[in-house]
Design goal:
Number of strands: 7
Number of helices: 8
Shape: globular
Strand content: 25-35%
Strand order of the largest sheet: 3-2-1-4-5-7-6
Structural class: alpha/beta
Mean pLDDT: 95
Distance between the termini: 34 Å
Radius of gyration: 18 Å
Oligomer: single chain
Largest sheet: 7 strands, mixed
Low-confidence stretches: none
Helix content: 25-40%
Length: 261
């Protein structure tokens, strides 16, 4: 299903379901510290019911599963959910194909709701009342994010320039380390209790970095098959010139924990 939002990519349509196979293969790249920091906050751990919005291929539930929480993941894309189910076949995780704004769960059902790399896609005026209803008293909303740093890492910067060549309306470029921001309307129902931002180096090969960039919104989720093929051919040639076979790319990660009022 395509999603459009005039504030993202100037309204250009995109659909991560187009990238599901590659997404499942190349986007499971968060380091252990990313998950450990969540558990250290006593979130998504044993005894808790957790809902992961915009779960994609289930990266967060699958990697946090070992901490003992009971997980449900939802996503608007049937292809993403299908891939999540394949990758989670030995795990007891429930997945549902549903837009975040249309979720229906019992009142005060979840201890934690998570949203990784996706909260800005939602209609906040519609979803906030849903979150306050389904979260338990003092329940937590945890927003998570990770992005490459194009101004601090040459390989990331050059790859980003090539994305913009093929997708000039892509608004995901130019990231700098920063705190996760949310619309003011969220603070009517939630209080900020914790935030953290930290830099990390993520290891890649030429193949896996090409796959990671290919699955970004500006390429795999929005371009035609012919455009993607042309971009990929050019990107692979670029990487042969600027990157060794194995390398690391500078990223930053961020988390924002909010408590239901």
């Amino acid at each position: 299903m395509e999603i459009t939002n005039k504030d993202i990519d100037f309204g250009k349509a995109f659909d991560f379901g187009k990238t599901s196979a590659d997404y499942g293969r190349y986007r499971d790249i968060y380091p252990e510290v990313f998950y450990d920091k969540i558990a250290e906050r006593n979130l998504c751990v044993n005894g808790q019911k957790v809902l992961d919005l915009g779960t994609g291929t289930g990266v967060l539930p699958r990697n946090m599963y070992r901490f003992g929480a009971e997980w449900t993941g939802t996503d608007i894309s049937e292809n993403q959910i299908r891939q999540a189910q394949i990758l989670s076949k030995n795990l007891n995780i429930q997945y549902l194909t549903v837009a975040a704004e249309n979720i229906e769960f019992p009142e005060k059902f979840f201890d934690v709701v998570t949203a990784c790399q996706c909260f800005w896609y939602f209609d906040h005026e519609k979803i906030i009342p849903k979150l306050t209803r389904i979260l338990k008293d003092h329940g937590r909303l945890l927003l998570l994010y990770m992005a490459w740093l194009p101004f601090e890492d040459k390989i990331a910067g050059e790859s980003e320039k090539l994305v913009l060549k093929y997708s000039p309306k892509w608004t995901g470029a130019g990231e700098k380390k920063r705190q996760i921001t949310v619309p003011e309307c969220l603070y009517k129902s939630f209080d900020k209790v914790y935030h953290e931002e930290y830099e990390i180096d993520i290891p890649f090969t030429r193949e896996t970095w090409n796959g990671r960039v290919k699955t970004c919104r500006g390429i795999g989720a929005s371009l035609s098959a012919e455009e993607i093929s042309a971009w990929e051919s050019e990107h692979k040639a670029l990487l042969k010139n600027i990157a060794p076979e194995k390398f690391s790319v500078k990223h930053y990660a961020a988390m924002l924990e909010l408590e239901k009022k």
